[in-house]
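Entry 12.
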Amino acid sequence: MSTEFELIEAFLKPFPSGRAVRIGPGSDCAALSVSPGMQLVATTDAIVEGVHFDLRRFSPEDVGWKALAVNLSDLAAAGARPRWFLCALAVPRSSRTTQIARRISRGMAPLARQSGCALVGGNVTRASEWSVTITALGEARRPLSRDGARPGDALAVVGSLGDAAAGLRPDPAPAAARAQRRPKPLVREGLLAARYASAAIDVSDGFLQDLGHLCNESGVGAIVECTSLPLGSAARRLHDGLDLALSGGEDYALLLSIPRRNLQALRKRIRLAEVGRMVRGRDIQLTELGQPRPLPRRTGFDHLE
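Predicted 3D structure (tokens):
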């Protein structure tokens, strides 16, 4: 059984040092330099064994990738450029603990390099199951939030829906398994969308549930044309693919409210699907080929169920 410090050393090894890091891993606190004129944007999220992943289906590398990806997706929704992150590990007692931790870091490090996000600190503690908690920090001149959508705005999705939920089923298609285990945070698209969108959220808990959060914060309603939703390649092949797209969750697509005057300019910069519009009121209405479609009973994932 390795010591705590041996585990930390093994975990840190794949990560390069970051720019603008005055104090990094090894001290009680990190010290970072934010670029002039930028706001610091912070998010935190955890993935827990038995809730978000099962090591019989996920490799430790998948766990590391996904733990960082879900946080980078939050930064993408804010239109923030990733800069730094902290990682807190909870680890069970096992002869394989350090080996698994090393593999988690090897899955996380390539995504950190791709996104220009440096590991600057963290923590390790004993627990009954594995969990990885990330606090990610980014910079934005004008961060997007869920508050800002207005009636008349276009409602658009960047990315695809439904495949991640399909990836939880037995013997999933390769595209579905990939979407569930190695989601791609849309950082570049979020940076570009920040110039044009009025509000944004990433689709983590389900399209309808996350749209509801955006509508509640902005004080608006929405009309969604279901045939315009961008289903993933695996979801399109399933008889209930639309249901997965509406309420499955973990797709990490971006859901944007865009003033009409900005829509064409953004279309030229990123690939998006216009799926509806923001309206007065607070309700979400679904249509299918223009005809009303009832809302499903389940709209997404509840973290406390």
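Annotation: Residues 154-293 form a domain with the Phosphoribosyl-aminoimidazole Synthetase; Chain A, domain 2 fold (CATH 3.90.650.10). The chain has a mean pLDDT of 95.
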